[in-house]
Target: histidine kinase
Amino acid sequence: MNLSLRARVTLTAIAVLLVVLPVTGLTVKAVFDAQAERSLDSLLTGRAQLAQQLARQNVVPGNLVRRVEANGVRVTLTLRNGRQFGAPPADPGGTVRQVRATLQAGQQTKGAELLLTADTALLADASARLRTVLLLSGLAAILITALALAIGMRFALAPLDAMTGLARSIAAGRRGGRLQPERADTELGRTAAAFDEMLDALEGAEGTARRSEDRMREFVADAAHELRTPVAGLQTAAETLIQLGPDATTGQREELELLLVRESRRAGTLVADLLELSRIDAGLQLHLSQVDLRHLAEAQAARLRVVAPEFAVEIRGTATVTADPERLTQVLANLLDNARQAGAHRVRITVSPAGLLVEDDGPGVPPPARERIFDRLVHGPHSKGAGLGLAIARGVARAHGGDLTVTDRPDGHPGAAFHLDLPTTAGLRRPE
Model:
């Protein structure tokens, strides 16, 4: 049944009345009938007792009958000699109640038989009238209740109407409306307060989603812009090779082929970094084991001696942590490459159980840019990369339950100090 809450409450109340009123009416009628029967019995018994008292007072039969008679009670007194006083005896029937008694005193009345008769038709009439009154009053109660509910429910459910109106307003695009109940300790007040809290959360989530969408749109645009450069280089080199054809000299061909390799490698690196960032966003899966941080740093120093012999790496300290060795290698490699691309010539790596400290002698990072450099596709003034290395490094660090930050060098020398903080084994956040 597609009924409104107002209609359901009204019908439920009327249904309850339809059950309660008949039960109450039947109970009242049964109590009335029983009480009327007891009252009639008490009346007849009392009249019989009065007759006994009058007989003891030696009241003559005629006076005794007149004094015992009452409204609705007929008295027949038959003396021992057969003489009768009062009304003639009534035939016993379904509507007649009779009480017999033998008088125990009096000169004329001793041994006389007293017959008291009451007509129960009056009780039946009273019971019928009571039934009619109960029926009419019950119908009136139902009609009045239905009318009162129809009017009262409009006011009682006004908060729900306000809630419905607000929901429709929000669905239409109007934000910021709230119910703001005056009392939050009632059922509807608590519902309205919870509704306002839900709207706060939804609008907050909507704002966050909108900002995330804007950042994603900006990120995609920046990624497309970054990819445009190597793709344009590939296209230019390929078109030049085609145009030169067999007439190209060996030097020209080698130069163009080198450009193709360099630009394709650059595009491949950018795509790989973008895929890495998507994995971090989806929840990076870590393969944890015991990692010797000094051995990891020495391996990166050996790599740099091959690719950049002029770049000096100094390593201090030793420590073993529980982490993903490949991911930590990726972080350290990004930090070292970032320092080299920023113009540093010397790097010092300090190993400790708390993580790694990578200090370089480059231009450093000014305080206003120390958070922005970890954003995606953000280039420093001296950077030559795509602006994804530090974002990936911080994502890996946070996937381990740690963090990556940058400050000035602790010794006061020019340059930057990157702090890779790793948690203890007990606090390490393992992947789901």
